[in-house]
Amino acid sequence: MRTKTSLSHVIATLVARPREKTFGLAVAMALAGGVIGLQAQGAPSTWPVLPETFESTGGGGWMITEYRPRVDGAVCRTDFVAVSPDSKDRFANMVEWTAMPRDGGVFCADGKWRAKDGSASGTTPLQVFIKDGVVRRAR
């Protein structure tokens, strides 16, 4: 039987384990940082609208196009195309986030992307909020 566990309980449990104290502390700091970061970003309704084309969070002049996040059950997802700085190469990808209800909409975080051909994968710091068909990106 599963029970809900608070973030503070998880952090306390991880930090309390002597053998895993360093790892537990690192995880606890990362979790707390994520919560604090989310609070510092302000109300999602004030975030800028996410355009379908924008510069990659990875930088280097790469552009992301055809980005249309949507809620699909317990996840948010979208297909997208990564375009090289010289616009000669285009790579088909997809990203999926954990979907969480928030402020009357859906907050999408902890994104994981992968190339459609399976050649690459990774994570994205990009967080989005979807409400009434409007997609916003965290600051």
What does this structure look like?
- This protein has 139 residues and is α+β, with helices and mostly antiparallel strands.
- It folds into two domains: 7-40; 46-137.
- The chain has helices spanning 7-16, 21-40, and strands spanning 54-55, 63-65, 70-72, 75-83, 90-102, 105-115, 121-124, 128-131, 134-137.
- Strands 1, 2, 3, 4, 5, 6, 7, 8 and 9 form a nine-stranded antiparallel beta sheet that branches.
- It is globular.
- The N and C termini lie far apart (38 Å).
- Mean pLDDT is 80; it is low at 1-37.
What's the layout of helices and strands?
Elements: H1 7-16, H2 21-40, E1 54-55, E2 63-65, E3 70-72, E4 75-83, E5 90-102, E6 105-115, E7 121-124, E8 128-131, E9 134-137
Antiparallel strand pairs: 1-2, 2-4, 3-4, 4-5, 5-6, 6-7, 6-8, 8-9
Helix pairs in contact: 1-2
In short:
Helix content is 22%, strand content 38%. It is an alpha+beta fold and 139 residues long.
Average pLDDT for all residues = 80
What is the subunit arrangement here? single chain
Order of SSEs: HHEEEEEEEEE
Global morphology: globular
Which structural class best describes the helix and strand composition? Answer: alpha+beta
Name the descriptors:
139 residues; alpha+beta; 2 domains; nine-stranded antiparallel sheet; 2 helices; disordered N terminus
